[in-house]
Amino acid sequence: MVEEHPAVRPAGNDAAHAPLLRAEAISRRFGGVQALRDVSFDVDAGEIVGLIGPNGSGKSTCVNLLSGTIAPTGGRVLMSGAALGGARIERAVGHGIVRTFQATQVFAEFTALDNVLVGCHILYRSGPAAAALRSAGSRREEGELRAHALDCLAFVGIADRAQSVAGSMSAAEQRLLMIAVALAARPKVLLLDEPAAGMVAAERRALADVIRAMPARGTAVLLIEHHMGLIMQVCDRIVVLNFGQKIAEGTPAEIRANEAVVEAYLGTRHDDA
Ligand code: ADP
Ligand code: MG
Predict the structure, then answer these.
(1) Which CATH fold topology does 1-7+16-96+187-273 show?
(2) For the chain, does the N or the C end have fewer beta carbons within 10 angstroms?
(3) Ligand in nearest proximity to the CA of 192
(4) Which ligand places an atom closest to the C-alpha of 101?
(5) pTM surpassing 0.85?
């Protein structure tokens, strides 16, 4: 038999038929608080999956577990059938899982382009392009990296801000920049934690277009968002959490019509799209 690697174990099913990302009965307890309990769902290649629920329902905890930011107290996370062990961000990135944060994190004193280039270096060190980057001393390779960084800025719609200092950019532009940095690693799945927070309607619409274009670039998406307009517009499927447990999963139409979801969440919010 194949010897078990401590971190990447065969899941016991054929990787060719395994979903891209699988949360398998993942749980997380913080002292006496059960933040997440036995939550299972998949994100397949090419999909945009929404993760919604009231404040404190466990959405960020879920992203933290999937991205290896913290370790689950139960269950496991699999990528293409291989289990990711414990809290290892670098391992998750190596498997193609990249996340953005609920609070914008960029280097305020760097230009937008340099933010993406720094992100490339940090993310690529443990990612699939690690070898390429280690040998990227030559002018040509640096040029390719720069072209890739500019392409990521263009993809999120802020190419014209490449030479702007990040701290001088609007909050919405900084959020887009954080997404560009994440995309620079060419993730197989991107976990977006409330990317539209603080955005006005026009900015949310632009963000929706960016998110919708991700699968065609080879990046599936798990989207956490409070704005139901954005969620309903871009998601193929939606997973609903309440008090740390999954209470529903379905298409936007199914979720809108789900009484338990309306009672726990949708009925209490009146977000404009
Ligand atoms: P959401 O993102 O849906 O608002 P969270 O995942 O942030 O919810 O939080 C879920 C629950 O877990 C909340 O009760 C929260 O207080 C608790 N929690 C989250 N992170 C921690 C932590 N690091 N320590 C203690 N409790 C936490
Ligand atoms: Mg949260």
Answers:
(1) Rossmann fold (3.40.50)
(2) N
(3) 2
(4) 2
(5) yes
